[in-house]
Specification:
Layout (H helix, E strand, L loop, with lengths): L1 E3 L7 H9 L7 H20 L11 E8 L4 E9 L8 E3 L4 E7 L10 E6 L5 E6 L4 E2 L21 E9 L5 E8 L2 E8 L3 E6 L13 E4 L16 E7 L8 E7 L12 H7 L27
Keywords: Cytoplasm, Repeat, RNA-binding
GO molecular function: RNA binding
Subcellular location: Cytoplasm
C-alpha cells in the first residue's frame, strides 16, 4: 500500500504508470503526447540514472507500508526546487525587545539583531532582515504607520519568533517599532522639539533634541501641545539625508502628573477624589426645607 506524503506536482514514476495505462482510443493529440512522454521515459531508462537526493534536499515521496515485514519506507523520491517545502513555524505569543544592531540594506547587507529575554529568563539575540520589519498600525482616525525605513539601534520593538523545524534556526519576524516617549522642549509657529526619555536609546539619542512638525500631531491634540508636555511618538526617517523627525505625536498622562495638567475626563478617571464637591439642601414639594415633625398626621 502506497500513500502520497505530499500533494502537488506528480512524480516521474507516477507519470510513467499513468502513461502505460492510456487506452488506444485517445485522439491524435493524446497519442502525440503519449509518444513524447514514452520517448522521455525511454531516455531515462536508457541512462539508468535518476536525480540523486542529497542531505538537505527538499523532496516529494510516497510512503510504502509493508504489513507483513512491518516496515514503512519512503519510495519514488523526487527532488523539488529549494523553498518548496515549508518547515517554518511561528510562535503565537508576541515578544518584545530592543534593536541591538540595525539590519543592512541590499542583498549583501548584514542581518540586524534584536536583544530580548527568553521565557526562561536568558538573554538572547535574534537576527532579522529589513523584509521582516512591518509598519506600526495606524492610529484610530489618525495617520498611517511610518516605519517604512525600518528600525534603528535602540528602538523598542515587538516581534514574532520564527523557527525552522529542520535546522532549529530562530529569527525575529513581523518586527514592529514601538512608540518612543519624551518631553516637549519647545514649540514654535510650525514645529517644535522633543527631548527623548533618557532611557530611550532609539528615540533620537540621549540628550539630543528631536524635531516635530505641528502637522504631525495626532488629531485631538492639535493646538494643545505645549512645553513640558509628556508625549509619545514614532521616529520617521528624514528625506535626502536629513535628520529623522518625530511623527504621530500625541500627549500622554501619568499618575504622577498633577491633576491640573490633565484634561477633565482624564483627571476624573485618574484622580476621582479631585472632583469638585457639590452640596444640595433638601426641599419639600412646597419649596420649604422639609417637613416639620408631625406634619402629615
Amino acid at each position: 500500500e502506497e500513500e502520497a506524503a505530499r500533494g502537488g506536482a506528480v512524480g516521474h514514476d507516477e507519470e510513467e504508470e499513468h502513461e502505460e495505462g492510456h487506452s488506444d482510443d485517445d485522439g491524435g493529440d493524446g497519442d502525440a503526447a503519449h509518444d513524447a512522454a514514452h520517448a522521455a521515459s525511454g531516455r531515462r531508462k536508457k541512462s539508468g540514472k535518476k536525480a540523486a537526493a542529497h542531505v538537505g534536499d527538499e523532496v516529494e515521496f510516497y510512503v510504502h507500508s509493508d504489513p507483513v515485514a512491518r516496515v514503512v519506507k519512503a519510495v519514488k523520491l523526487r527532488v523539488l526546487p529549494p523553498g518548496t517545502v515549508v518547515l517554518q513555524t511561528v510562535a503565537a505569543e508576541k515578544q518584545r525587545g530592543v534593536v541591538d544592531r540595525e539590519a543592512g540594506s541590499g542583498k549583501g547587507g548584514a542581518a540586524g539583531l534584536i536583544r530580548h529575554v527568553d521565557p526562561d529568563g536568558a538573554t538572547a539575540l535574534l537576527p532579522f532582515t529589513p523584509a521582516d520589519v512591518e509598519a506600526p498600525p495606524a492610529a484610530a482616525g489618525g495617520k498611517a504607520g511610518a516605519a517604512a525605513a525600518g528600525v534603528a539601534k535602540g528602538d523598542a520593538v515587538e516581534f514574532s519568533v520564527m523557527a525552522d523545524r529542520a535546522t532549529g534556526e530562530r529569527w525575529a519576524a513581523r518586527v514592529v517599532a514601538l512608540p518612543h516617549e519624551g518631553v516637549v522642549d519647545s514649540v514654535k509657529d510650525t514645529y517644535g522639539y522633543i527631548r527623548p526619555d533618557r532611557t530611550d536609546e532609539g528615540g533620537g539619542g540621549a540628550g539630543k533634541l528631536v524635531v516635530f512638525y505641528l502637522t504631525e500631531v495626532e488629531r485631538g491634540d492639535q493646538g494643545k501641545i505645549d512645553k513640558g508636555d509628556t508625549v509619545q511618538y514614532w521616529m520617521q526617517a528624514g528625506s535626502r539625508g536629513k535628520e529623522p523627525t518625530a511623527t504621530r505625536v500625541k500627549r500622554v498622562f501619568r499618575m504622577k502628573e498633577s491633576p491640573g495638567q490633565m484634561p477633565d475626563a482624564l483627571r476624573r478617571a485618574h484622580h476621582p477624589h479631585s472632583a469638585k464637591a457639590m452640596s444640595r439642601t433638601a426641599a419639600g414639594p412646597d419649596g420649604t426645607r422639609g417637613f416639620r415633625p408631625g406634619r402629615g398626621r
